[in-house]
Amino acid sequence: MSSNCDVLVVGAGPVGLFLACDLTRRDLDVRVVDKNDGPTDLSKAIGIHARSLELFQDLGIIERAIERGQIENGALFYSADHFLADIRLDKLDAPYPMLLDLEQAQTERLLMERLAELGGRDERQTELVGFVQDDEGVTATLKTSSGEETCRARFMVGCDGAHSAVRHGLGSDFDREAFPGNMLLADVKLDWELPPTASWSNSAMTACSLLPPSRAAARGSSPMSPAM
User: Which domains does the chain have, with CATH numbers?
Assistant: First the structure.
């Protein structure tokens, strides 16, 4: 089986889905594929910054994003019990002066909705297993639940994360350094005396911010000793 498209997007996370939406609304024939069964059910990356919110506005999803998320107007910093700073995000010179807490699971579903509205769709259980390129484009081999197929595209874009099959296929290095230490990350229920539009952090790199009201929970992160 074979197919043709203008752009093959590999990876249906937030980046791949956003790109697919943007290209589809510009009348390009786009396929976005992902080897996983469906969107993540984890909160993962939750902070959407002011510039990204402007892009959400341009894509036509800003109202839905704000409705589903939790607005943060600032961040409070402490060293033990000593107050250090109050960083105001609502003073930014931007159309959306805030940080929006929205779980990645919700962000992906929101972008999937928008892609469907534009006439596209994400293809799951579809894995890139190889490709060759020439002066005219790329021929990709995709593994699906029905077997293998080829897809001919003018362009292919790798949005498939740290272990990118596209990057490995190109032989491109991913230079990086490991951050020393371990971090504990959890979505928890807690008593919260601070304003609902604030996040909190201290000098020990422990931090906390509220998740959207529908979750009735907060995101907490803290350094963790190797013995834990």
Answer: 2-46+105-170 (3.50.50.60), 63-102+181-224 (3.30.9.10)
